[in-house]
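Hi team,

Filling in the usual template for the complex we talked about on Friday. All components are listed, including any nucleic acid strands or ligand strings, so the model treats them as one assembly.

SUBMITTER: L.P.
PURPOSE: interface mapping
COMPONENTS: three
RESIDUES: 334
SEQUENCES:
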Amino acid sequence: MVISSILTCSINELNLRYSLTNGQAFRWRSNPEKSKWTGVIGKLVFSLQQDDIGNLLYTVHNPDNLDIKDSDQILEDYFQLKTSLTELYKEWSEMDEVIAKVIPKYPGVRTLRIDPVENLFTFICSSNNNIGRITQMVNNLCIKFGSKLTTVDDVDYFSFPEIEILSGKNVANTLRELNFGYRAKYIQKAAEVLLKEGGSDWLFGLRKQEYSEAKSKLLKIPGVGPKVSDCICLMSLDKTESLPVDTHVFQLVSKYYIPKLRNKKVNINVGLYKEIGDHMRKTWGKHAGWAQTVMFTSDLKNFQTAEESDGKKVTKEDKTEEEDEPKIKKQKRS
DNA sequence: GGGCCACCTTTTTC
DNA sequence: AGAAAAAGGTGGC
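RESULT (copied from the run log):
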């Protein structure tokens, strides 16, 4: 038993490939044509497609007693479809000529509304890391500590692990063996601290609080610094003004917005981090974080044309993103 | 209190 | 080909 439905949408409001593979969510898998995406939202396994005008055709593979109204609602919520991206693109274009040049080439790049628990542990994995490897780590995390939901096209899909399970004493060791590196102990300790604070309910509760308050509370969690905290605020806690400053954003900002930073070897300290965020909030307004998502996406090499990439080559890592086959650890030959 | 630097591992760059 | 730097940073000194 599956259920299927159509959600009214358009290609300017949503581009699945951009929005699902630009480093917000890490668990979507596409068919070779990149026309159909399968992944997990909560405990449900969805397949998503768009018709030629952009309407969202979807299937839920393990609906149990789910009503179509509910599944519609889940997708509207996940993609935040109530917010008009067309309207935002227009506003940003009027405010800033830099973004005005970029966004026509990147329609439909939406900021997602991801489960905060999943987002927290995923972005703890993201430090000093690349999208290809983060994807692999998160998938391993779910396979190891999540529970199997269903199988689609011979691929098993798993729920995101419960906090209680991730707090287990052996988790850090197991994750070390799975090549999580120094992030292994952060994950286990973050789960412990999170449980002490009040678990999932506490995290979801941050949606009702001010940006600054939510952000500083997240900083109590091991492995969560200013940047990861902002990612959780932006992609899970409805803080549209939250603006994660990473290496990409720093490059973009120094190149186009704050010339004094150009060509300088600066490491981002607390003051500079805030300066950059404030500057871009002034430039882009209340949804500055959403604008940042678009700019970040335009800066990813695997989305750029040869001309845009400006010398940057499309690399193996980018291809990894595009591949269907799970990456198998290379074995040494004798 | 702020500026360094180590941290795991893989990929990319030079 | 092989070393070095970078990859959506953070914590500790």
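MY TAKE: Residues 23, 123-124, 126-134, 182-183, 186, 222-228, 231, 244-249, 268, 296, 300, 317 of chain A lie near DNA strand C (CB under 10 Å from a C1'). Chain A has 17 helices and seven strands.

Thanks, L.
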